[in-house]
Specification:
Blueprint lengths: L1 H16 L10 E5 L5 E4 L18 H10 L9 H4 L8 H11 L1 H8 L3 E4 L1 H9 L9 E3 H4 L14 H7 L8 E3 L2 E6 L9 E7 H8 L8 E5 L3 E8 L10 E6 L8 E8 L18 H27 L6 E4 L6 H11 L3 E4 L4 H11 L17 E4 L13 H15 L9 H37 L1
Parallel strand pairs: 1-7, 4-5, 8-12, 12-13
Antiparallel strand pairs: 2-3, 6-7, 8-9, 9-11, 10-11, 13-14
Helix pairs in contact: 9-12, 10-11
Length: 453
């Protein structure tokens, strides 16, 4: 929250330096890191425990326990209800872990003092008054990432809450992504309405103006997140994708759904690398890491095409990695479709602003009449007519083969008896070759001695 307040103050100061009157601002929108779980005391306003962020896997045992409780012992058991598998990733298992491991959280729940929220909820509660009447709300996109919301009704599901043992009275009210929720109660933006709220990846979907069914965007950051607009249709993936809410731009507006595929490691992809030889240079390593993101993006697109049956005709991209032209051209080459990169790559912030601006009571933007931002388009350079030495499909097949060969390489994951057996077999299989080498060396040594005589 200190960072949020500092951001607001600096933004207002920058506007004044540009001779823009902050009074001209009509609304603000919020975009946030999804799934991150926060619990706090509504009477003191203080967090009851550190936030557990989206990548944190301390709740692995909790996930295993929850999967074991399902009727068919499947992580996908609740996907038809919430669109998500039971995973360390989503808020429900993070919250369950906190409840099981932090006594003061349990006490606060028993006393009716505890509130739960993702980052958007925490920010809105604080900006609209906190302990003095702060609004305890979330939007439908963030709620869809908790594993507690019914994907069809867009309400907290009593069966899911009961399964995870989470009391519904700690959950925020679910609202649309574009409406006036309340007003900022202090600071440089005092009185300004908050009228937009979207999880970061959904905000990028809006910022890229993917308003038509079959459009998709990919955000390249710490992780890589590809969202594919499925319109008002809820598509349950049979190829490992997530079903999520894309956006709802108004109380009475239709809810737009999306399929999502993610690459957990993209911008930080240097931590596991296979296939290094004595000829490998640092440039090769960088290139391999960048290309891995492009190959995995094609993996996701292939899955989406199978689930939806509508091949993507172009891919809209944003995020920090998109500044790299090599990555963008490689992505176009491997997917065989144009990759469109906006000149202004911070489309997540743009999406939050668009949601805020189109809300009833604000209406400074017509969401269906916004000019697309200028962009660069990378067209595929690899053709299927043999003009390039390796076609996209040949390279993709080689990638898939490399993945197959890399599975199970970590010795720490192999049982000791299996490891010993494998080592024994390798030693035995190496004996003939070793004997040949030793005998060859001995014969050369004898021949040298004889020559000297």
């Amino acid at each position: 929250m200190e960072a949020v307040h500092e951001c607001i103050e600096r933004t207002v100061a920058n506007l004044r330096q540009l001779d823009i009157d902050p009074a001209a601002l009509v609304a603000t929108g919020i975009s946030n890191q999804r799934e991150t779980t926060i619990v706090w005391d509504k009477l003191t306003g203080k967090p009851l425990y550190n936030a557990i962020v989206w990548l944190d896997v301390r709740n692995t045992d909790t996930v295993d326990r929850m999967v074991a409780r399902t009727r068919n012992k499947s992580a996908d058991y609740w996907k038809p209800v919430c669109g998500l598998p039971i995973s360390t990733y989503f808020s429900a298992c993070k919250l369950r872990w906190i409840m099981d491991n932090v006594p003061r959280v349990r006490r606060a729940m028993n006393q009716g003092r505890c509130l739960f929220g993702t980052v958007d909820t925490w920010i809105i509660w604080n900006l609209t008054g906190g302990v003095n009447g702060g609004l305890h709300i979330t939007d439908v996109t963030n709620a869809s990432r908790t594993m507690l919301m019914n994907i069809k009704t867009r309400e907290w599901d009593p069966t899911l809450c009961s399964f995870f043992g989470i009391p519904q009275n700690i959950l925020p009210e679910i609202r649309s992504s574009a409406e006036i929720y309340g007003h900022i109660t202090s600071g440089a933006l005092l009185g300004l309405p908050i009228s937009g709220c979207l999880g970061d990846q959904q905000a990028a979907l809006v910022g890229q103006m993917c308003f038509e069914q079959g459009q998709a965007k990919n955000t390249y950051g710490t992780g890589c997140f590809l969202l594919y607009n499925t319109g008002t249709l809820i598509v349950q993936s049979s190829h490992g994708l997530l079903t999520t809410v894309g956006y709802q731009l108004g109380k009475k507006a239709p809810v737009i759904y999306a399929l999502e595929g993610s690459i957990a490691i993209a911008g930080v992809a240097m931590s596991v690398i296979c296939g290094i030889t004595e000829e490998t240079s640092k440039e090769n390593i960088v290139k391999a890491a960048l290309e891995a993101v492009c190959f995995q993006t094609r993996d996701i697109l292939e899955a989406m095409n199978k689930d939806c049956g509508i091949p993507l005709t172009r891919l809209l991209v944003d995020g920090g990695m998109t500044v790299n032209k090599y990555v963008m051209q490689t992505q176009a080459d491997l997917c065989g479709i144009p990759v469109v990169r906006p000149v202004m790559t911070e489309t997540t912030a743009l999406g939050a602003a668009m949601a805020a601006g189109c809300a009833d009571g604000v209406k400074v933007w017509d969401i269906h009449n916004i000019h697309a931002v200028p962009n660069d388009t990378f067209h595929p350079s690899i053709t299927e007519d043999g003009n390039y030495p390796a076609t996209k499909d040949v390279r993709y097949a080689a990638w898939k083969m490399a993945i197959e060969r890399s599975l199970g390489w970590d010795l720490k994951t192999i049982p000791n008896d299996s490891l010993l057996s494998d080592i024994s077999n390798q030693i035995i299989s190496a004996i003939p070759g070793g004997f040949f080498i030793l005998s060859s060396v001995a014969l050369l040594h004898i021949a040298k001695k004889l020559k000297c005589r």
